[in-house]
Every structure is written in structure tokens, then in C-alpha cells.
Fold this protein.
Amino acid sequence: MAIKLIANYSKRLGLPGYSSHQFSIEIETELVTTDDVAAESARIYELLQTNVDEQIRQTGFVPPTDYGMEETPASPANIGRTNGSQRPAASAAWKCTDKQRELIENLVTEHQLDKNEVDHLARQRFGKGVRELNKVEASGLLNELLESHSGQQRPAPNGRRSAYAGINGNTGGKR
């Protein structure tokens, strides 16, 4: 009667930047007799341990500490930009996408909105100014601006339309 001996050895190493890597080997063998199970088990364990330790020394890609926290020229947010360059200086302070920034700026211009009121609206809704809004927050602000300015509205006496027009009964004039 043959006896199966199954052994597994695994090792995980922590790497910089909250990263880690792991390597594991499993082996299955048949023993002809039960006379030397302990010796064969020790031999297989040493074999697995030696091989895992040799392989795990090759760490491969180790991300830098700030990996995923900043945009780089090759990051998805910058792919397709002219000459692979980063965002232009004018939009560098914006956290949302360039298209969202352009749409917000176009809405302000086309509807003659007061930039300070739009910024105030962003601070009311998201606790931060327009330039600090991430993609999701900017999308919410854009939805609100588009909903409140989709119809024809008259400018306020100062010639500007309020970002609050149509919100909570606001007619668009200054208080």
C-alpha cells in the first residue's frame, strides 16, 4: 500500500509602500513504506524551503512609497496629452479631470455665473473649493449646475447669474 505525503511551503515578505509578495510550492509524493516518514518529511520540507527562499529573493516590481498617490507622465490621467506632457499649468491645481474643469469653466462663462458663488456652492456641498473637487464630486457639482441652468434664466441686476439659481427657490439674484 502506497502512502501519499503532501507538503506545502509558503512565504510572504513585506515590502516598502505597504506592499508584499508571496511564493508557495506544494509537492505530492508517494512513500513505499512507512518506515521513514519523519526523515522523508524533513527532506521534503528542507527542499521546499530552500527553493521558496531562492525564488522569493527576486522581488520584481517594488512600488515607491507614494505609488498611486501622484500623477506621473505615464499615469492614466495624462495619457493622450500632447507630447505625453502633464496637465498645463493653468489646470494643474484642479483635482478633477480636464474635461470636467473645462465644462465647469464653460458653464461659468456661458451662463455668466459668479465664480465665487460656484466655489461657495462646492464648499457647501463637498466641504472644499471647486479646484479641490475629485472626479466624483466635480460630477455632482456639474449635475447641479446643469440642472439649475438648463432652462432660460434672466441675469441678476449685476449682469451675472447665480450658481444657486433654481436651488431651494433661489431666483438667481443676490440677497
